[in-house]
């Protein structure tokens, strides 16, 4: 095959190039050189390539792997803090869904200004990559066990979509994880303490503590989620925790259908709580 494309940039460039490479002649070779935390530790490891449609995220896509990925954490030196946080949040997610000891590690090394030495940044990126690869090794399709990587993403994609670029993917997922934790508590799966650990890691340790956007209502978020790509018919399905470091898997399925009224109630309470805390601050 005479063509070879280079994807040099963040996760957005990686997905657009991966999608384009997969479509040309039913798939040509491409190389990824990710330059953001999200690109280096998360998006390039999935071979999922997707673009949005007019009505929602990732509506067109397929699997297409690069011939190799070249990661150099030197690129992260110029990455803005909010963008770095957006990548690290997926590492926090990996701990919650698959490895409680990884959360202990993150609690030690993270600090809200995300100002790391070169060595610290290298180690952190490397460890987040490993945390995701351990999951992908078991299910590279991300459809069965690997679907746990979608923790917080059903809510997150809805928020990301509604904010139309005002929030990064990672920041939207950070809210999504907090709401998923609240939903897990409401269903009696995890404790208040487990939920508080989400807030502690995301807000106090990572510094992702912007207020929830006041333009998003529970109704809007519910509507956005219903057109999200994970829906089956009209049901809303979520990845939920069984405990810290493990996902809930009733009857062999990590995607759990939850009554829409209950989801809406949890979202309403979350928005109410966020409004109160942003008024206090
Ligand atoms: N396919 C997947 O499995 C998967 C997983 C996670 C995220 N994603 C996708 O990735 C995208 C988010 O990726 P992202 O967080 O890298 O954002 P991004 O690609 O949108 O980049 C964010 C910004 O950072 C700039 N930038 C890139 N590298 C830089 C550097 N080294 N220094 C300074 N600025 C730099 C970019 O120009 C851009 O303005 C979303 O579209 C998301 O849906 C896909
Ligand atoms: Zn993600």
Can you characterise this structure?
This protein has 281 residues and is mainly α. The protein folds into 2 domains: 4-75, Rossmann fold (3-Layer(aba) Sandwich); 80-280, Dehydroquinate synthase-like - alpha domain (Dehydroquinate synthase-like, alpha domain), CATH 1.20.1090.10. The chain has 10 helices and 9 strands. It has helices at residues 11-23, 37-43, 81-98, 100-109, 118-138, 153-163, 169-186, 192-205, 218-226, 260-280; strands spanning 4-9, 29-34, 48-51, 60-63, 68-69, 237-238, 241-243, 246-247, 256-257. Strand 1 (4-9), helix 1 (11-23) and strand 2 (29-34) form a beta-alpha-beta unit. Helix 6 (153-163) crosses helix 7 (169-186), helix 7 (169-186) runs antiparallel to helix 8 and helix 7 (169-186) crosses helix 10.
Write the layout of secondary structure elements.
Layout: E1 4-9, H1 11-23, E2 29-34, H2 37-43, E3 48-51, E4 60-63, E5 68-69, H3 81-98, H4 100-109, H5 118-138, H6 153-163, H7 169-186, H8 192-205, H9 218-226, E6 237-238, E7 241-243, E8 246-247, E9 256-257, H10 260-280
Parallel strand pairs: 1-2, 2-5
Antiparallel strand pairs: 3-4, 6-9, 7-8
The protein binds nicotinamide-adenine-dinucleotide and zinc ion.
Residues 9-13, 15, 35-36, 38-39, 42-43, 46, 48, 75, 78-79, 83, 86, 168-169 line the site of nicotinamide-adenine-dinucleotide.
Can you summarize this structure?
By secondary structure, the chain is mostly helical. It contains 10 helices and 9 strands. It folds into 2 domains: 72 residues, Rossmann fold (3-Layer(aba) Sandwich); 201 residues, Dehydroquinate synthase-like, alpha domain.
């Amino acid at each position: 095959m005479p063509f070879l494309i280079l994807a040099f940039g963040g996760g957005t460039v990686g997905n657009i190039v991966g999608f384009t490479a997969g479509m040309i002649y039913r798939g040509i070779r491409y190389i990824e050189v990710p330059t953001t935390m999200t690109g280096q530790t998360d998006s390039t490891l999935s071979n999922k390539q997707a673009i949005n449609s007019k009505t929602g995220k990732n509506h067109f896509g397929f699997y297409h792997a690069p011939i190799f990925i070249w990661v150099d954490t030197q690129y992260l030196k110029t990455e803005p803090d909010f963008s770095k946080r957006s990548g690290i949040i997926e590492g926090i997610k990996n701990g919650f869904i698959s490895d409680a000891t990884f959360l202990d590690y993150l609690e030690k090394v993270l600090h809200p200004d995300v100002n790391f030495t070169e060595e610290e940044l290298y180690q952190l990126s490397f460890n987040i990559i490993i945390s995701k690869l351990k999951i992908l090794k078991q299910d590279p399709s991300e459809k069965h066990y690997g679907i746990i990587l979608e923790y917080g993403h059903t809510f997150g994609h809805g928020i990301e979509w509604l904010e139309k670029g005002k929030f990064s993917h990672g920041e939207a997922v950070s809210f999504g994880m907090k709401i998923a934790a609240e939903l897990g508590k409401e269903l009696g799966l995890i404790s208040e303490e487990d939920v508080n650990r989400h807030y502690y890691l995301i807000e106090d340790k990572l510094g992702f503590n912007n207020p929830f956007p006041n333009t998003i209502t529970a109704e809007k978020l519910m509507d956005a989620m219903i057109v999200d790509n994970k829906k089956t018919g009209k049901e809303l399905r979520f990845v939920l925790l069984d405990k810290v470091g493990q996902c809930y898997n009733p009857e062999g399925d990590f995607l759990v259908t939850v009554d829409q009224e209950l989801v809406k109630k949890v979202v309403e309470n979350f928005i109410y709580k966020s409004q109160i805390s942003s008024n206090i601050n």
